[in-house]
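discrete fold record:
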Amino acid sequence: MLQRLVSPAADNPNATLPVGRDAETVALLRRRDQQGLRQLLADHGGMVRERLVRRFFPQLDHSEIDEALSKALHQVWLSVQNYDPAEGTLRSWFAVIAQRSASKVLARRRPNWLQLSDQLDEEAEPLARGGLQTLATHDLLHDTSACIDLLPVLQREILRADFAVRGTADSEQLATRFGTTPTTIYAARSQGLRSLRAMLQRSGHRIDPTQPVDQTTPLRAETG
């Protein structure tokens, strides 16, 4: 069984990977160095697996999800030469492959434990270019929600209220609800948005600073 190696940056939007870490991982993979797979799993495996659980559990049990992740690692090994960082982050690319792998496992219903294939150089399957763009949006929505959960209570609840109305919630009503003033609501909203943008950028998203944050019409980002 492949040991699960998860770094803090894999699951905590506040954590950051060292500068150039993903580029190093890709370079290792392209040199056919399995250390690249270990780094990919350590840095992004936790978040990608969590998304598989959210999307496929309980239709897939945890052993089947591990199987899907294992097969996705194998596919990464086979197709890394096709990865283009201009189209999305390494995590988004990995997540696209993992979700497709999980869909296949769901169709077959064959549980297996997470393992690294001994036949690493079999022919790779093509990955549709549009899939990465779609996953980038899904990743951004997921990470926005995860980052909001880390904000202080007032900032978190204000942004949730904003997202619920797909715009800006009434500040006077929020002030009454939380026993404070509209001025405090304005300040907390502004600080919450700044913190949210910073966390998303640390998670690998390149956010347009001029665009409003909206969880249902997501931030425009160059990568997922």
